[in-house]
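Run: sequence + manganese (II) ion -> complex structure.
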Amino acid sequence: MRPCIGITCGVNEQGRYSLPQTYVEAIQQEGGRVILLPPGEAIWPEVDGLLLPGGDDIQPHWWGEDILPGLDAWEPERDVYEIFLVREAWQRNVPLFGICRGMQVTNVALGGSLWQDIPRQCPNALLHRQEADLAQVSHLVTIQDGGGRLSCGELWVNSHHHQGIKKLASCLKKGAIAADGLVEAFYAPAKDFFWGVQWHPERLLTEPEAGRQLIHCFVQAGYHHFMAK
Ligand code: MN
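>> structure
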């Protein structure tokens, strides 16, 4: 009776599939069963929830821009695969949780755009790419609309992202913003659970709201999907 949560992964320079353990453990602790999804793998109908984790930059042609100086490495196959999965999850009403790159790729797949390199394109931005341990919080976000999942107020979050939301897809709603105005969380009001966060909740499990709560709600949504099949 455990929902099956699919987590996509990258491929590193040594040709190994790569995914930090912390994503898997966070889902397992909430009662989810995990399957890893290498690019190209078919996942329906087994998967009850889709988790898109952190990773490399996204190629800007997906939102109609040329490559600007400051763009880092990207994985073309992973972009194609994850954008396809987001659109499929939307059509099939499968719960989705995008974390860091996963949030960005969700926004792009649904028609939004990104800053290619925050420090160059937004000179007044906060330092969002902190080298600090991700178990440490580094900046505050203000909850604009918690969508029933986060309570209003401010939250301390960690921050280790290079790109960020430029234009939010029209089907998504701002959940939280940083002091410089950057969107740090969003959700789709039309869906049971379709969330993205720019921080890393899987590394903040001791923080109830910024860490454990959304992961818990995501696995619960996966459980409801599983029971409804
Ligand atoms: Mn940030």
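>> summary
The CA atoms of residues 201 and 211 lie 4 Å apart. Residues 128, 139, 159, 161, 178, 184, 198 surround manganese (II) ion (CB under 6 Å).
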